[in-house]
Amino acid sequence: MIKSLEINERLEKYISDHSYDLHPIQKEILNHNKNLGDVKKMQISVTQAYFFQFFIKTNNIKNILEIGTFTGYSALSMGLAIPKDGNIVCLDINKETSLVAKNFFKKANLDKKMKIILGPAINTLEKLKDDKKMFDMIFIDADKEKYKNYYDLSLELVKKNGFILIDNVLWHGDVADLNKNDRLTNTIREFNSFIKKDDRVEKTILPLGDGVTICRKI
Ligand SMILES: C[S@@+](CC[C@H](N)C(=O)[O-])C[C@H]1O[C@@H](n2cnc3c(N)ncnc32)[C@H](O)[C@@H]1O
Question: 46-76 as b/e, with b when 16 or more CB fall inside 10 Å?
Answer without folding.
Answer: bbbbbbbbebbeeeebbbbbbbbbbbbbbbb
